[in-house]
Amino acid sequence: MRSLRVSALFLGLLVSTGVGAGEVEIVDVKVTAQSGQKYRFDVTLKHADEGWQHYANRWQVETLDGKNLGTRVLHHPHVNEQPFTRSLSGVIIPEAVSRVKIRAFDSVHGDKGLQFEVDVPR
């Protein structure tokens, strides 16, 4: 299996939309080819979760033009687990798509945090 890991150290692959206080940061992304057009995404987030009233609540894989290819819902706050990594397997990426973006959301700010663009390992 081929995989690709992108971290915040590789700023050339990071697209910033302006992270402010309390918004979700995408710290790391690993993409692993599975079978066919299916891929696994391991995404590491950092957020100052405060409990149920304000926490990182999901991330999603999208095409560069915004089509949602898969969503990983985060069902609870991670107050004492920062940063944290969660995975999503079986994401189907069409053959014509060579690059995707990851967007992270929190329960207060939505998706105003950082976005990652990452190449799809073929």
- Do you know the CATH architecture? Sandwich
- What is the 3D form? elongated
Compute the number of helices: 0
How many individual domains? 1
Q: What does the radius of gyration come to?
A: 14 Å
CATH class identity: Mainly Beta
What is this structure, in a nutshell?
With 122 residues, this protein is mainly beta. It has a single domain, classed as Immunoglobulin-like, CATH 2.60.40.
Descriptive account of the structure:
With about 120 residues, the protein is mainly beta. It has one domain (about 5-120): C2 domain (Immunoglobulin-like, Sandwich). Helix content is about 0%, strand content about 50%. It has no helices and nine strands. The protein has strands spanning about 5, 15, 25-35, 40-45, 55-65, 70-75, 85-90, 100-105, 115-120. The strands form two sheets. It has a five-stranded antiparallel β-sheet with strand order 2-9-8-5-6, with no helix packed on it. Strands 1-3-4-7 form a four-stranded antiparallel β-sheet, with no helix packed on it. A hairpin with a 4-residue loop joins strand 3 (about 25-35) and strand 4 (about 40-45). The protein is elongated. It starts with a strand and ends with a strand. About 25% of the residues are buried. Mean pLDDT is about 80; it is low at about 5-20.
SSE arrangement:
Elements: E1 3-7, E2 14-15, E3 25-33, E4 38-46, E5 56-63, E6 68-73, E7 84-92, E8 99-106, E9 115-119
